[in-house]
Amino acid sequence: MEHFPVINMEKLNGEERATTMEQIRDACENWGFFEILNHRIPHDFMDTVERLTKEHYKKCMEQRFKELVATKALQGLQAEVTDMDWESTFHLRHLPQSNISEVPDLSDEYRKVMKEFALKLEKLAEELLDLLCENLGLEKGYLKKAFHGTKGPTFGTKVANYPPCPTPDKIKGLRAHTDAGGIVLLLQDPQVSGLQLLKDGEWVDVPPLRHSIVINLGDQLEVITNGKYKSVEHRVVAQTDGARMSIASFYNPGSDAVIYPAPALLEKETDDGNKKVYPKFVFEDYMTLYAGMKFQAKEPRFEAMKARETTAPTATA
């Protein structure tokens, strides 16, 4: 099995730029995931995010999770549970409008730090999208513009903790799925593993690396690249010991953005004899469909959007 792709972003600034861009291209085409180091988010700041997130879980969420486990009779499971996940979560919205000031139970310090973290991740997401544009032969800014809609992109964070689970063979931390949106930036626990992706029919661990950010591609990038880049199925395996922290930030299209394969890529593919074309749709319509089909294969979602395609409004470039 090949090694999980780990990209040193510093090397984009020197003689190894071409090699590093090739590593990113290969990761996007063959993995749908990669891990980045030296991304210019300070290590001490990331340590603060991790500390505050773990403190918040202990203080505000751990007891609630124990009560949920008792209520749902999830202790000592005998049969497999397929309609729930062994996770404790809350969500933050950053764009188009932040809701951080309204989320209950967050300390002032935690609110401030998460707001700052979101700004750093937003900038990093847009840098990464431009690197993808460069590799795809699209003009700089194409993907950011494709995500824009009338109000700009949607950007939010899911903060999750995966507590120790006595029966990890009976329940997943998070069931297998692909991500619906654009590009995902994940700060995961540096010690406790659990995230896996499906590659060539096998589940592969995404290694925990301190101060790294894990990147994965969502369904919308698969559509815009007409399948050149793929969103990849992934899951979280519950662990018997050690609580795993996960802070996943989703840089997605705006709700009214019209998503469709980039015409420049379709022209290239027509020359190569590829006739398959992904659907064109409004992102919000895709999300409505996804809500009921998240833990199912993505292909029927694309087919359903293809069937509705005739009703989508004309894109404004």
TrEMBL record:
The pathway where this protein functions is:
Alkene biosynthesis; ethylene biosynthesis via S-adenosyl-L-methionine; ethylene from S-adenosyl-L-methionine: step 2/2
Which EC number applies?
1.14.17.4
Can you supply a Gene Ontology BP term from the record?
cellular response to fatty acid
Q: Report the top EC class in one word.
A: oxidoreductase
Q: Name one GO molecular function term.
A: 1-aminocyclopropane-1-carboxylate oxidase activity
Q: Which residues form a coiled coil?
A: 107-134
Keywords in UniProt for this one?
Answer: Coiled coil, Ethylene biosynthesis, Iron, Metal-binding, Oxidoreductase, Vitamin C
The protein's matches in InterPro entries, at most eight in alphabetical order, are given as: DIOX_N (IPR026992), IPNS-like_FE2OG_OXY (IPR044861), IPNS-like_sf (IPR027443), Oxoglu/Fe-dep_dioxygenase_dom (IPR005123), Plant_2OG-oxidoreductases (IPR050295)
Domain named Fe2OG dioxygenase is located at 153-253
Protein family according to the UniProt entry: Belongs to the iron/ascorbate-dependent oxidoreductase family.
Q: What is this protein called?
A: aminocyclopropanecarboxylate oxidase
